[in-house]
Q: What sequence folds into this?
């Protein structure tokens, strides 16, 4: 008894110090995170996002994805079939940007799969077309919160770092769920509410997501998290690299 009490006290002190550090981190992240999305209407914010990607930032997006290793590490997920594209015949790539994910789809999806690249920014779609050097994908310009596709037409959706450009994730998740057929698969990559996520949000004028909150919301919308994916073992250990998850429409 005599030895247990100080040990318990020590443990409790350690737990409260941990909680304090976590809270401090949350405050710092919140201070660093870009908050434009919370301050203006969605129309005003979306115009700003479009201008960001239409302009010079969009022109260097492909190079940034290579430098940050997102593009090669993302390719590994698809090449190693951690997210298995085989068997999917109609694939939608939401927010294609410079065609970073679409390029992997062209390599690793079935050769008869139809691929649609979708983005808010026309210049971004032009850049994707130039980079991909393929006549196979269809290119569509529109807003993720109002996609010009019928219900259940896709059996696979990929969405890399786009959902964080919406004030409410529901606006995008409901749309993606609508265009996916039941049993369809969805690869979601999103910026997490970590320090590096907050920093990314500054660069790309977006928000971040809390993993647990996003998971709960998906469950409510009938989007089941099948597997949480990690780019490498190091990313998993350090909980780095953002949210990357395979989702199934129920
Ligand atoms: C960071 S880039 C992601 C590029 C690529 N998917 C990747 O994984 O690297 C985000 C892209 O989403 C597009 N985007 C932002 N908001 C959007 C919206 N509401 N609807 C459709 N596309 C949007 C931007 O134009 C930009 O091309």
A:
């Amino acid at each position: 008894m005599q030895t247990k009490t100080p040990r318990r006290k020590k443990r409790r002190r350690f737990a409260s110090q941990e909680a304090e550090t976590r809270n401090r981190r949350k405050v710092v992240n919140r201070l660093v995170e870009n908050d434009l999305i919370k301050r203006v209407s969605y129309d005003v914010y979306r115009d700003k996002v479009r201008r960001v990607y239409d302009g010079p930032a969009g022109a260097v997006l492909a190079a940034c994805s290579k430098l940050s290793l997102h593009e090669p590490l993302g390719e590994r997920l698809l090449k190693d079939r951690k997210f298995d594209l085989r068997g999917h015949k109609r694939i939608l790539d939401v927010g294609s940007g410079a065609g970073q994910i679409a390029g992997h789809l062209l390599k690793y999806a079935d050769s008869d799969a139809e691929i649609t690249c979708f983005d808010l920014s026309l210049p971004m779609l032009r850049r994707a077309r130039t980079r991909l050097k393929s006549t196979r994908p269809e290119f569509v310009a529109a807003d993720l919160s109002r996609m010009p596709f019928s219900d259940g037409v896709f059996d696979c959706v990929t969405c890399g770092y786009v959902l964080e450009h919406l004030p409410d994730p529901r606006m995008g998740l409901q749309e993606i769920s609508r265009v996916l057929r039941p049993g369809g698969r969805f690869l979601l990559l999103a910026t997490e509410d970590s320090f590096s996520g907050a920093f990314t949000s500054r660069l790309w004028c977006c928000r971040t997501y809390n993993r647990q909150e996003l998971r709960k919301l998906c469950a409510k919308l009938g989007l089941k998290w099948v597997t949480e994916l990690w780019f490498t073992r190091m990313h998993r250990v350090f909980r780095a690299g953002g949210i990357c998850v395979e989702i199934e429409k129920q």
